[in-house]
Design brief:
Shape: rod-shaped
Number of strands: 0
Distance between the termini: 69 Å
Largest sheet: none
Number of domains: 1
Number of helices: 2
Structural class: mainly alpha
């Protein structure tokens, strides 16, 4: 279940707590527990988003390096192979 849906479900639970008829002490405990859960999920979502963006940027850098290496090697290989083929044909 995505974090956003969990946060909405916890918000609905807090809204329904007075209607459910729990004793005041339990209701207070549930409100605090659900409130802390919402805070932790929000912070977790923010940290997770930043880490995902950082990982994506690193993957992009690695891909660019690999492409540059392949292009560099392909250029060297064609330069080496071209004179070899020409000398063999003559």
């Amino acid at each position: 279940m995505p974090k956003n849906r969990i946060i909405v479900a916890l918000g609905v639970l807090i809204a329904l707590l007075p209607i459910l008829g729990f004793p005041r002490v339990w209701e207070s405990f549930f409100q605090v527990a659900v409130g802390l859960s919402i805070i932790l999920l929000s912070v977790w979502a923010t940290i997770d988003k930043r880490l995902m963006l950082k990982a994506k940027a690193q993957r992009r850098q690695i891909h660019k390096r690999k492409v540059a290496e392949i292009n560099g090697q392909a250029g060297v290989e064609t330069e080496v192979k071209t004179p070899t083929f020409q000398s063999e044909q003559i």
